[in-house]
Amino acid sequence: MEMSRSNVPVGLVILLLLVLAPLSCALRSPGGGDLHPSVEHLVPVTLLPSADTSRANRSTSTDTPTIRMVGPDGTDGSRLAPWREGVGVPVEVRSPEARGTPVDSLLVVTWNVHVGGGDVLRFVDDLRSGRITGDPVDHFLILLQEAHRAGMDIPATADGGGVPARIGSVPPSGERIDIVEATRRLGLNLVYAPSMRNGFNNGGPPEDRGNAILSTLPLTDPMAIELPYESQRRVSTVARVEGVDSLGSPWRFKAVSVHLDTRSRWSRLLDSLGPARLRQARGLVEALSMKEPTVLGGDLNTWFLPPLEEALPYLLERFPDTPRTQGDHTFQVAGIIRLHLDHLLYRLPDPYRAGSVGRVDSRYGSDHFPVLGWLHVGADGPGGDPRGGSSS
């Protein structure tokens, strides 16, 4: 969420929106507003091996690697065009050590890392050491929002049409590294899809920012989904996570990292109270295949009152296996207003099981707290062997 970064007094804005809320209810169209038809195409992707510390050593395949991109057509597509021109191509980092190990459970995390402010290296080290959960975590999936990528494959210049203000947060360690470098130091797998440029160059290398999926396990069939346009370009990152359990049964599920807008554009500002995010949630669900196990994590930015904030209820209906208790607030406005913006949502047909979901006590330098929960995919799930000993 970026609301607290504005110079406009937060209390005044909230008071104004409270006054205008009834008018928004009266003007809002049934079903949350218009959705433009979606189009699908392939875009290039930079493919990097995790073990190689040199960014220059990329895939040597003669085939250009690609990623599926689904996005709105029509007016929304035209509005998104200048935002697309300012970013680089998506990135995949693959770790050769990820395959073959039996996995029955893994930890799932969603975290808005505030464009460099969240110390991903220390967070993962604390997961692996057991300082967060009490026991070392061997296998995990981290769904990141506001991750950033520097230098590589980003246009050197961009016009102002799709360039937001730069966010240059620095973690407590003092070392600000991008998501590609963090992934390779940690030896993980990555799919990163940029949403927008991270400001103008400001004397340093160009940057973009967006959503990412980090995993100890293989990530396949990557996909990027452009959401309906509200005030900024938002691209959700999607990938399949797959493995085998301790009985040798294969499993796989789809992982989605999403970040909804804080507000709508000025021509329909009242939709900032909730309808804008409902439109984006609907666009995301329409682009996803809901026929397989799916875990969705993200910063939903549902900061207004529940009667208008329909994005979360809409998503909960479509992710019915979500634990109903998800802990404390995950974001604070002006140090006083506490909001629960970050969520893990599950759509898990048998035999998959979701464990309880809770908030980590430290923000690790970000302005959001990480949220985590266990996902049981194999023989040691709750209640014994949820697979009944058979392959799936």
Task: Please provide a written account of the structure.
It is a single chain. Helix 5 (275-287) runs parallel beside helix 6 (311-318). The chain is of the alpha+beta class and 392 residues long. The chain starts with 9 loop residues before the first helix and ends in a 16-residue tail after the last strand. The strands form 3 sheets. The chain has an 8-stranded mixed beta sheet with strand order 2-4-7-8-6-5-17-16, covered by helices on one side. A 7-stranded mixed beta sheet has the order 1-3-9-10-11-12-15. A two-stranded antiparallel sheet has the order 13-14. A hairpin with a 5-residue loop joins strand 10 and strand 11 (250-259). It has 6 helices and 17 strands.
Characterize this entry briefly:
With 392 residues, the protein is of the alpha+beta class.
Structural topology:
Elements: H1 10-27, E1 38-44, E2 46-49, E3 66-72, H2 74-85, E4 91-94, E5 105-112, H3 120-129, E6 140-150, H4 179-186, E7 189-197, E8 207-215, E9 219-226, E10 235-244, E11 250-259, H5 275-287, E12 294-299, H6 311-318, E13 331-333, E14 337-339, E15 342-347, E16 353-359, E17 371-376
Parallel strand pairs: 2-4, 3-9, 5-6, 11-12
Antiparallel strand pairs: 1-3, 4-7, 5-17, 6-8, 7-8, 9-10, 10-11, 12-15, 13-14, 16-17
